Amino acid sequence: TPEVELLLEPQQTLELVVRDADGSIPTEAFANVQGPSGEPQPVFVSLDREGRGIVTQLPPGDYVALIQGQGAAVVRFAVPSKVQLQLKPRGTLVLESGSPVEVQVLTAEGLPVPWGWRGMGTSGGWRRVETSWRLALPAGDYRLLVRRDGQVQEKLATVIPGQETVLDLAP
Questions:
Q1: Residues 66/137, Cβ–Cβ less than 8 Å
Q2: pTM for the whole thing?
Q3: What span, in angstroms and rounded, lies between the C-alpha atoms of 170 and 121?
Q4: Which of 19, 72, 110, 170 is most deeply buried (CB count within 10 A of its CB)?
Q5: Mean pLDDT, range 48-66, rounded to an integer
Q6: Mean pLDDT of all residues in the chain?
Q7: What's the number of CA atoms in the CB half-sphere (13 Å) around residue 116?
Q8: How confident is the model at residue 168 (pLDDT cuts 50, 70, 90)?
Q9: Residue 27 CB neighbours (<10 A)
């Protein structure tokens, strides 16, 4: 029989180590990940007793993710890499609109928040909001870009832990 030699390359993975907002170790985390394609995708991560989880379904590249357990975090990372996260307490941003608009949410540091995925009203970082939308976010300051009839308007919002922040998107 002929000999076959297979050369295996190291797997390109993201290793997450997560602590929840209260310091506990969650058993799982949900990440809405936006990568090189610009389109967000959902990723569920099972975590071991140390809060460690391995993500293998993301190709090498740079990403931004909204990661949620009991708390939440918006982070930038690369694959392959190891990311240690302490989730922050979260609140809810409620977007109210009297007419359909497109919205992009940015952290105070300018990271785009991936908050949906293609086919679910999201494309290229923008999400269509018909009347209202609720978004769980880590507590902090956010800048929202609101696109209506080709015009973009900026709005600011502060998400407070455990509370709802209502933002009227009307012009």
A1: yes
A2: 0.87
A3: 19
A4: 72
A5: 94
A6: 91
A7: 19
A8: very high
A9: 13
